Amino acid sequence: MTQELLSLFNELKLKAFADNFEQIAASEENINKVFLTLCQLEIERRFNTKIRRKIKDASFPKIKTLAMLDYQKAPRLPKNKVLELAEGKFISQKQNLILVGDSGGGKTHLAIALGIVACQLGHSVKFYTACQLANNLVKEFDDGNIEKWMAKLKKYSLLIVDELGYIPFSKKAAELMFQVVSDRYESGSVIITSNLNFSKWTEVFIDKTMTTALLDRLTHNATIIKYDWGSIRFNQAVEASINNH
Q1: DSSP class of residue 62?
Q2: Last residue of a domain, one of 17, 38, 56
Q3: 118-175 confidence digits (pLDDT tens)
Q4: Would you give the end-to-end CA distance of the chain in angstroms?
Q5: DSSP letter at 64?
Q6: pLDDT, tens digit, for every residue of 56-86?
């Protein structure tokens, strides 16, 4: 009978049942408690599988967590604000987060870590570098698929755009990026990391009027964290060099 049950569990894709039945059944005489425990384990397994799928679908370039943040190396990173953001309310409230300032300060790390928390909270997340997103937008426009692709982008609870400011956009890419932000205004959250202060965003978006309108939408009810403690990566490299001599 046990083998028959295990076969049925596998056929029904009840992996937690199949993995734990013999152990639970041996330690618990009450059949109701046996299946209650198995059901709880199965729900937990499916939940964890769903989170792993969401993290994979988000296309993060690497896994970075909040636990990996080193506040000693980012002394002015507001820990209380980070913990508040980690509750995910800003996503539920469709608000934005903008991390702006020094390259190498840890902006991408925080963006990814909050993206992973969002996945764990059940939100749909997508990560792009600004260059990737701009190139994809222009390609989909040229292929005649832009409306469908924009609609897909809009469905994500959280869109992360990393490294805005390293490469200026073409006129078409800037217009399409503006459309992405406009579509998400008060309908979905955006996290943007940038090495440029807002006054220099015209260098990326070219058109001053469009840049002003974009910033108006992005910063409305947004959290803005300024990174002004230099490059953690550079400081680590200097420290390592000194220690090696």
Answers
A1: S
A2: 56
A3: 999 999 999 999 999 999 999 999 999 999 999 999 999 999 999 999 889 999 999 9
A4: 69
A5: -
A6: 999 999 999 999 998 888 888 999 999 999 9
5, burial (CB in 10 Å: exposed 0-12, middle 13-18, buried 19+): middle
Contact present, 191 and 108 (Cβ < 8 Å): no
In 3D space, the residue among 167, 178, 164 whose CA is nearest the CA of residue 207 turns out to be: 178
Q: Which two tokens stand for residue 36?
A: 């209650």
**CA gap 180, 169 in Å, rounded:** 14
Domain that holds residue 153: 66-237
**Sign of the alpha-carbon torsion through 31, 34, 39, 40:** positive
Domain match, 98 and 12 both: no
Distance CA 226, CA 236 (A): 21
pLDDT digits (tens, 9 = 90+) for 1-48: 678 777 877 777 888 888 888 888 888 778 778 887 887 888 788 889
Residues 51 and 76 grouped into a single domain: no
Q: Which amino acid is at 187?
A: S
Query: Quick count: other Cβ atoms within 10 Å of Cβ 11?
Result: 9
Q: Of 133, 117, 130, which is closest to residue 55 (Cα–Cα)?
A: 117
Task: Give pLDDT tens digits for 193-238.
Answer: 999 999 999 999 999 999 999 999 999 989 999 998 777 655 555 4
- Residues 182, 193: Cα–Cα separation, whole Å: 18
- The H-assigned helical ranges of 143-207 are 146-155, 171-184, 202-205
The answer on 122 and 165 residing in a single domain is: yes
